[in-house]
Design goal:
Layout lengths: L2 H4 L26 H13 L9 H17 L3 H25 L4
């Protein structure tokens, strides 16, 4: 059984005008880790002794652990983890940028 048959990609939300949809690369089984990583990032941000620039580096191994748990201890699981951490950081930054639309 291939990994794609075991963990189908999220293809239910195709949008016109976007040639590549980031969410097509993340397995649905691991999507629950994205909001969890955002929450962990918010908690780490409140820790004064940790500079903000280290938050993505802290989220990366946690995302990889989530990816390995959801897709198995393979290169594909590690890649899923990197994508999960990237989605959490990107989602957080996109929210901040859209919230600060006046600047």
């Amino acid at each position: 059984m291939t990994a794609h048959a075991k963990y189908p990609l999220n293809t239910n939300h195709k949008k016109e005008g976007f040639p590549v949809d980031f969410m097509d690369f993340i397995y649905q089984k691991g999507l629950a880790a994205v909001p969890a990583l955002i929450v962990v990032g918010a908690v780490v941000k409140d820790i004064r002794c940790v500079p903000d620039r280290f938050i993505p580096l802290i989220l990366l191994p946690l995302g990889v652990a989530a990816g390995v748990l959801s897709a198995g201890f393979t290169a594909e699981g590690v890649i899923q983890g990197v994508l999960l951490a990237g989605a959490a950081v990107y989602g957080n930054q996109a929210y901040k940028q859209l919230k600060n639309k006046g600047t």
